[in-house]
Amino acid sequence: MVKALNCRRESDIYMSNIYNIVSELGVRNGETKRMNCPACNGYKTFTVTNNMGSLMWNCYKVSCSVSGGSRVHLTVDDIKRGFKDAEQFAQDNFALPQYIVSRSGGLYMNRWCAKWGIDAAKLGLMYDVKEDRVVFPIVHDGKIVDATGRTLGKRIPKWKRYGNSGLPYTSGCGKVAVVVEDCVSAAVVGYGSFVGVALLGTSLQDSHRRYLAQFSTAVIALDPDALPKTLAMAKELRGHVSDVRVLRLVDDIKYRNPTDMEKLDALRRQIGE
């Protein structure tokens, strides 16, 4: 009993020290700071984020268990800055190049969409006449702020970004974010209570963290060969989203492996449609 109380006191002192370190950083609303972890000494693995007065910290090194959160006072300037940052995307002056058209890209684009079982009209897909690409629009607040295009031939790069918003491609209107690697995967999972969020890779950028922070639940569903990155990403994202889960896949989700789709549907029922 005495030993248990001593362990609890040591844990309280330890967490108090972490909190003091975090508080002294002076992280402003909307900011994220990264540093060496004060617990495990991991290089740049410790992040601290201030999201509208919710101060969250986390070490995303898998072997380290340090994470926490606290409420902090927001100044008037902090609040104004938060609104300014939120309006920045809506005021973006991004314009699609004239060689990207809304009409069908013809036989090859239709075949490509049919191959993956996606509806070009429903997703609002477009066609890059110049480079022969199917184009996925990136929409924020009802406005196209960016786009990414996938070649229908052998052109390099396979995927091309047309703007610099840094926002992920999303598909669906649900309340749970399912984080995937590519646009097709996002279209596959983005229905019902799920929003498919395509990182367009396997790295979590600051713009991704800011976008995902609006969700209370996020599911990481990267390709099976990216499992180490999946676990590290889940740990890092827990500093921004309260409920983060990992969906271990048999195959890339866009291939709709029956086992993976069953896992996805089971998770949907568990979380609540």
Explained architecture:
With 273 residues, the chain is of the alpha+beta class. It folds into 3 domains: 2-74, no CATH class; 92-166, DNA primase DNAg catalytic core, N-terminal domain (Alpha-Beta Complex), CATH 3.90.980; 168-273, 3-Layer(aba) Sandwich (Dna Topoisomerase Vi A Subunit, Chain: A, domain 2). Helix content is 33%, strand content 25%. Strands 5-6-7-8-9 form a 5-stranded antiparallel sheet, with no helix packed on it. The protein has a 5-stranded mixed sheet with strand order 10-12-11-13-14, with helices on both faces. The protein is globular, with a radius of gyration of 21 Å. It starts with a helix and ends with a helix. Residues 1-13 have low confidence and may be disordered.
What's the domain count?
A: 3
Quaternary structure of the protein: single chain
Note poorly predicted spans.
Answer: 1-13
Strand content: 15-25%
Class per helix and strand makeup: alpha+beta
Largest sheet: number of strands, sense, barrel closure: 5 strands, antiparallel
Radius of gyration: 21 Å
Question: How many individual helices?
Answer: 8
The separation of the N and C termini measures 45 Å
Helix fraction?
25-40%
Mean pLDDT: 83
